[in-house]
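Bit of a strange request maybe. I'm writing a small parser for structure token strings and I need a real example to test against, not something I typed by hand. Could someone generate the tokens for this chain?
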Amino acid sequence: MFEGVEAAFDTLATPPVLILSRREFIGTTAAVVSAAEPDGPSKIIDTHVHFYDPSRPQGVPWPPKDDKLLYRTVLPAEFRRIAEPLGVTGAIEVEASPWLEDNQWVLDLAEKNPIIVGTVGDLQPGTSDFRKRLDRFRKNRRFRGIRCGNLWGRALEAEMKDPHFISDLKFMADAGLEMDTANPSPALIADVLRLSSRIPSLRIVIDHLPIDVPPEPQIRRKYETDLQELGKRPQVYVKVSNVPRVVKGRVPEDIDYYRPALDRLWEIFGPDRLIYGSNWPVSGHVAPYPVALRIVQKYFATKGKAASEKYFWRNATIAYGLSPGAA
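Reply from user aminoacidic:
Good idea to test on real output. This should exercise your parser:
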């Protein structure tokens, strides 16, 4: 998608760290605030943030201790300090742990921090206690779904071969919950296409597009075909996140650099199925939060106010089935 740049990233990747001085960071933040369009979106829901606390007695399964940027306590107060001045009014926390009780830890965190309007948890469909565990957590209205894909040693391609896995996802869809995908790749996009065919009632949010597609023509053609087919399926949404790229040690902010890849997603999925997510704090490996937000703000501003409203919060309320008035 982006030629000649460094690869896209997610929670289980360690991309290059972009270092900004304090003066550069403050200047960037001020620029984003001052550049805010007066007719921009009325609110912003960031649908992809992570919270965790390595200082707990049990520690955390992620991030690794050698990740100097991420291995620290990351809680809503810090996110609010960064994001609220930029117009962010709500956040959806996406699991950063496969431990069962960490689903409850996040829900407890949300009770004390109203900025968390939803959470995408981690439960494993196909296991004997999946439905019991799902019923436990979905009693809390903020529990909006689970994440499946290439993470924690699990692969969607293999899981879909289990009829119990499919049955459990149908059960979850009937409960009005959604499924996020993890660590996108051309292969995972193909798996999502097959899954959406088997469970048409399941709302699916594909995390972190656009990706950097391998240069092999066959892989590119298959990926493009699969993406176009997913674009025909109204139950499939795309989280436009992890957009900034590092080029020669810097992050370009010129929207023309990102426009071809973003235009392609717009052409395929249209204004009703693209949603905003940051992947904070992992996104800090590439660019400060204000820079990443500014890039997509500039792009969607060219699509008009109605499109910005949909991208920054309206589509999220539908994809995640959020409560009326969330954020």
